[in-house]
Amino acid sequence: MKVADNINPNIYEKGSAREISKTDLDEDLKDDFDQREIFDIIRNICDPEHPLTLEELRVVEENNIVIDNKNNTVHVYFTPTIPHCSMATLIGLSIRVQLLRALPSRFKVSVEVTEGTHVSEHAVNKQLADKERIAAALENNNLVQIINQCVKSV
Amino acid sequence: MDPIWFKEDLADEIIKQSYIFNETQSIVTDIVCDRIDITKIVENMAGVLTHRDAENREKGMRFFTKLLKDLPQSYLNQMQVNFISKFYIDRLKDNHRVIPAVLEGYLAIMDMKNYEIKLCGEYFNILFREIACQSQLRQDRLNIYLTVQKVLEKDIDYLKSLGPDFVFGLISSMDGERDPRNLLFLFNFLPNFLAHIPLGHLVDEMFEVISCYYPVDFHPSPDDPAAVSRDDLAKALCPCLCGAQEFGEQCLVLLIEKLDSSLRVAKLDSLRLLTESCKKFKPETYSPFLKALWSSIYREISHKTDEEIKMAAHEALSALVANLATSHNTDQSFENFVKGIIISMQTSVAESTTVAQFVHATRVLLSVANSSKESCIIVARSMIPAIISYYEFKTSAKLQVASLEFIGDLYDLAKHWDVLNDLEKQANEIIPLCLTSVSEPTKEHQMAGFKTVIKTIHALKPDLVLPFVEILIHIVQHSEDDDLLLISIGTTNAIARKYPELIMDLVVKGKCNMDNIMSDKTNLQKRLNLLSNLASIDDFTKVILEEMLKIITLDEKNAYNIVEALNTSLSNASLYTEEKVTQIESDHGLIDSILSWLFKEIKSASEESLLHGYTLISNTVCSLPGDKQILILARHSPNIIEKCQSEDVYFPLLECLYRSLHQNINDPTFDDILKLSLKNALTSKSVFVRTRACCLVAHILNKAEFGQTFEMLYELLKNYLASCSKDNEDICSPLIHLYGWIVKALILRGSDVFTFWLQKILLTITNPECCKDGSEAIRLIMTDQPDSLNSRLHCRTSILYKQRIFQAFVTMSSKLGPFDGETKEAYLLSWAYVLEKAPKTVLNIEAAQIMPLLVDALEYDNKDLLVVMIDVLTHFVLMKNLLVAQSFQTILPRLVKLSEYVKSMDVRIKSLQCLYEIANAYKTALLLPYKTDLLFDLAPSLDDKKRLVRNMAVRARTRWYLVGAPGEDKTE
């Protein structure tokens, strides 16, 4: 068995569930998408190496999400636990797949590594931005299996 | 003619194996009646007992054994028993075929009254020499063990005198036993044996024979009807392994070895063995192993996911510490061990960055402190100061809250072990820390601080009361948060119990002085709540209540607030006991004051404020003993009844006085009151009065004594309703409402006549004009009302009444119909109310009848109906009911349609949740045909305007994506 890249990562506190406000319960008001909602969709994705969520490892954080309701765009920046993490692409792919399944099709989604946190950040970003490579990856059963296992607990 | 056993032909008869084996009972009768001597019978059997064929000798012995078993145990005299015993012992040397009968027979001999225990010495001698136990059949082996057990029960001292040879014999006969039932017997028997019989030089051999089964690895065969489970065996084996102090060292070596194994059951068994062994072994047994034990236990405690192992490890640790603690005066190792644990846990506490890590470390410490008085002192002495300084340098709010909770728990343990005197210095530091915490602006800090103060109230010094009171009163006046208000009041109450004088000066006569409160109107209610809570403490009752009642009688404007505050506090039974309320009533005349206030206000005040008054009266009445209740009634009811006759607005006063009477109070005026209530229930213009009247009818019916009293009232009710129901159309709706109350009252007292009234309600559902009232009545029956028909108000209640209604409803509704449009909706709605409250397990039985209703209901545009029906559907889905799967073709499109139901987000959320659960529950093969369509249909919900709906849509859609996809691990 391959030993994980980062055997002993730092673990952080899990945030509490979003509190349900009065406006949430009001039938007539329209709730816009916000950072927190996108974060809630991806926080529970599991790390491929540890039984921990991306939130606990601080791979994704609420503040690293940019959303624009008017122009229908979502940018997610994620931070690998160590700069030479070989799983970075896989994590990015999981986030992308999850957002693809869980967001309305009007949004244009981009997933990138936070600047300066990975040795080959440009290569990873390029791969994640390439629609055809993503589509090809999702044809690969082994890969889909790993991704499905990561997003299962969401 | 004499039967055969009087002749020598008996032997031949036995050889022939004929009916004779069934005749032993007659032979025994003959022997007991002295018609024949047992010697004679044996003589007649001679031919078969000494036959040269082993096969026939076996038959002879079998017959003899059967005879002995049937004989009364006290019949044979000592000489006869001796003789027969000698004969049997001699037979042990015979052919192997004969042995089973001998073993069984000897067991019967040992039970005889005149059996001398010393005879068994020779028996065992020959037995162990001549017979290899493990080559016998299962039952015969068991018989051998049973003989040993018998001797152990009869005469332990004799067994001891048999010495090591006997022990060795037993060891060799047990060695290699494989049958689970026999093993279970041995494991149950051995601890007793080991506890009494010294093993001498055979300790190692004995331990080896037992320990070879450890850890038990056994799977019962699937078709065994009375299987012995692995856990039974493992549980029984534990006490054997630590049955004798001499096993100590070997047992611990074994246990540590198995703790390090990678097998989960081995770990669990070892931890349980350790727990068990701590009850038996002396503390010094553990000294050489403590390091190894702690490192293994700690490893298991740190287990991330397996809760069962974690719990077992905690228990083992507690047991070990408790055992070691018995040597705290003589041996240093206990203290060193506990200190070692503290040091390593302090490191983990210091390193922890999340609450989970912190709690994990502190739980270990709590386990240690929980296990003995001595360890509790050591842990608390070093951990309280450590945590206090930890609180100061860790700034994360969650960790600070967790540390406060830990200190509170530790203090509780110290209280439990009664060691607070040894901890005075440390405990004094706790309250200032709480003060720091409650001074923070966040709710979490304040809540945690107050909770800890309540726990550690004994350590509160008078000089800190003032700062706490300042903060508490500030919160009471300004906080909007209910939890925080509640705990602040609780804390004030706790402080007041410890320092009544201080709180009296600072709060009751100081900050919350009545005059003061009344002049300052802001947050009046909250401060009144505080005061009415404090009034439950004896020292305060008089002062506060007198003030309050004075205001109720004099001041009209704010009396309402006081009534509300009193009502809230008095209905809290843990605060105000029945005795306390009775005392308040007799000392201060609470009911009188409230009644006169109500009389004054009844026509002007709002319904809500009056309601507080009514509830307050009924709650006070219900706490009074029967004789006091009668007095109250006698004083007030004539006047009120008279007023009611002319104006129905006074009726609620009457109702609140009568609502909570004891069952045995029987007043001749009840007839009139029932009539009056019925009249009001049907004809009053006010909905409130009608409901109160129905409620009183229900209470009177429910409480009436069984027998004549009830019959008379019931007749009266029936006659009254029969006389008025036909002619007047206005009373149709109130009448159906009243039926609902009657059904509820009757079913709660366990009376079967409720079906008559339920039938009437069901008939109304088929009528388009009043079907809505019918389903409302059903709702009323199924819902619990806080202020009526419960045991606090001395009503009869039956726990399973909802189930009975459900069953009655199922039978009755099958005869109803046909329905159209409106009535169908009301019909489904009534079903919904019944299904919503009926116990879910009962629904499963009637699934076939309910399913079509669910499917139908999904098409109606009625929010209440949809919410309940989708819930019930989801319940069936969770039960993996196949009926749901059979209607997927209809259900799924309807649910999808409901996921865009505009009028209610609840319906949208619930239908999406149901779709999610469907994907979770059923086999892939059943779901796959619908997957593509569903993924497409669920997309619009992802952009729903409500976030809560979107969240559920995300769950449902991502779950459906996994259906049949690689990586979905579904056990099918």
TrEMBL record, chain A:
Report any one BP term from Gene Ontology: chromosome segregation
Gene3D superfamilies, sorted: 6.10.250.1280, Fe-S cluster assembly (FSCA) (3.30.300.130)
- What SUPFAM superfamilies does the annotation carry? Fe-S cluster assembly (FSCA) domain-like (SSF117916)
Q: Does Repeat count among this protein's keywords? A: no
Please tell me whether the keyword Lipid metabolism is annotated for this protein: no
GO CC, any one term: cytosolic [4Fe-4S] assembly targeting complex
Q: Where is the MIP18 family-like domain?
A: 36-113
Record key words, sorted? Chromosome partition
Family assignment from sequence similarity: Belongs to the MIP18 family.
Please report the name of this protein according to its UniProt entry: MIP18 family-like domain-containing protein
From TrEMBL, chain B:
Q: Which UniProt keywords apply?
A: Cytoplasm, Cytoskeleton, DNA damage, DNA repair, Nucleus, Repeat
**GO CC annotations, alphabetized:** cytosolic [4Fe-4S] assembly targeting complex; nucleus; spindle
Q: Where in the cell is it found?
A: Cytoplasm, Cytoskeleton, Spindle; Nucleus
Instruction: Describe the location of the MMS19 C-terminal domain by residue ranges.
Output: 615-918
User: Family per UniProt?
Assistant: Belongs to the MET18/MMS19 family.
Q: What does this protein do?
A: Key component of the cytosolic iron-sulfur protein assembly (CIA) complex, a multiprotein complex that mediates the incorporation of iron-sulfur cluster into apoproteins specifically involved in DNA metabolism and genomic integrity. In the CIA complex, MMS19 acts as an adapter between early-acting CIA components and a subset of cellular target iron-sulfur proteins.
Q: What binding partners and quaternary form does the record give?
A: Component of the CIA complex.
Q: What is this protein called?
A: MMS19 nucleotide excision repair protein
